[in-house]
Amino acid sequence: MNMKSLLTGLMVVFATTFYAQGGMVTFSVDMSGYTGSEILTDSNVYVNGTFNDWCGACWTLGDSDADMIYTGTFPVTSDTIEYKFTVNGWTDQENFVGGEECTISAFGFTNRYLTYSGDTTLTTVCWNSCSPCGVGPDPGNVTLTVDMNTYAGSETIGDSSMYVSGAFNNWCGDCNMMSHNGDGTYTTTVAMGPGLNEYKFQINQWADQEYFNGSEPCTGPPAEFINRQLMVDGDTIVGEVCFQACVTCDLAQDPGNITLSVDMNQYEGPEIVGDSSVFVSGQFNSWCGDCNMLTHNGDGTYTGTVLMPAGQNEYKFQINNWADDESLVGGEECTLTTGEFTNRVLDVNGDAIVDMVCFESCAACAAPCTLADTAPVGLTKSQQPVPFPDGDIDRAQVKWYKDTPDVKYSADDNTAVDIEFWPIRDLVTNTPITNGDTTLLLKRTKPNKDLFKWPVKYIRPDINPNTRYRWRVRIYCDAGN
Length: 481
Fold this sequence. Notes:
The protein is mainly beta. The protein contains one helix and 36 strands. It has one helix at 3-19; strands spanning 23-30, 45-49, 60-61, 69-76, 80-87, 92-93, 103-106, 109-115, 120-121, 125-126, 140-147, 162-166, 179-180, 185-192, 195-203, 208-209, 228-232, 236-237, 241-242, 256-263, 278-282, 295-296, 301-308, 311-319, 324-325, 335-338, 341-348, 352-353, 357-358, 377-386, 392-401, 416-426, 431-432, 439-444, 453-457, 467-476. The strands form eight sheets. Strands 2, 3, 5, 6, 7 and 8 form a six-stranded antiparallel beta sheet that branches. Strands 11, 13, 14, 18 and 19 form a five-stranded mixed beta sheet that branches. Strands 20, 22, 23, 28 and 29 form a five-stranded mixed beta sheet that branches. The longest helix is centred in the N-terminal third of the chain and has 17 residues, at 3-19. The termini are far apart.
């Protein structure tokens, strides 16, 4: 066999092996339920996917008998594919919410998904559906109305300010403007695919938008993006709703300008906290790190006012654009834990001033302890008979007080005490002792009891008979912490 014949034989083997991974696949889509803006012809419906690099107008589906069913057969070289049907290249396309039985979602995109083997003819499906037309829900023209009369955001609302965006228009910012009804309400009708659709109202091409937390009955569950949800099965008129609410404005809670204050005086983290260091971030600003700086009040506390949507809002205080933030354990009265995240939570219904809290706490910072700023007074020592009063004298009782006359450190003071003593004279020889060993009893406490005395038993190995000792005590705040 010459070299030319050998190379030709190898090419045939490779070609056969390559196409064995896929096959000839027949795609078929029923466009009878299509409600988009494009005019359909017999040659402007396409299939795009991983098999043709999503090329747009490369693989045309035909409708030679004008029955609105478009079909095409093509060589596909992989047995696992993602794809979708489109009109006029990419002028219009199927938009899936995600979670449909025939789709897969990854990297922000949801496409049809198929695993097959060999030559395959796919079942005819309805546009934007996993099922044939007439089976399952139908697409529909959906009429939506939003009331903007209670909007309290920063945008100016004019006749051409309101839009609806969603999976049906690929979240386009300026594709579906709503018509002003002249009374602060806005209406439009859009074509949505069958089944579950997500959407929201937005202002001036995403300059502002609705923010939800996932607890509302008309939205999806908590996730990175929380949107309105609607199950579509044919043409639908959705009742008027208030912006950022699931009900009409007269029934909805109101958004509010919320004044928040945090005390940073007890912050012990690694960041240097200056005048422009403390921020509040939350659902209201998409957890932006540097959007809402709090103003330093000059005393280690910081205050700011932010606009929050009505209902439940999550937020937290953070430092230097997320260089450090509150670590909330979960279970605190002011927090909500969702998955791995624990944040502060506030139910908003109109303007409110929230009480100042300590960083990483639901309460105000505890007042600094001043008990240890001054030494205890009235230090005495007495020999203590046990049992009292006729028992053996087996210990010394050391006493001290917070103030005169005989004001005790109470259980509420929550103190701890150090007791130090050392020998100063041998009473047998009546000679001074120098450089005697010192004993230090550290951070002794009596939880939930007054702390103003402590027994030192004579049987201790550092207590010698016939010896005079000198004593002193030291008080700690917060049980020695």
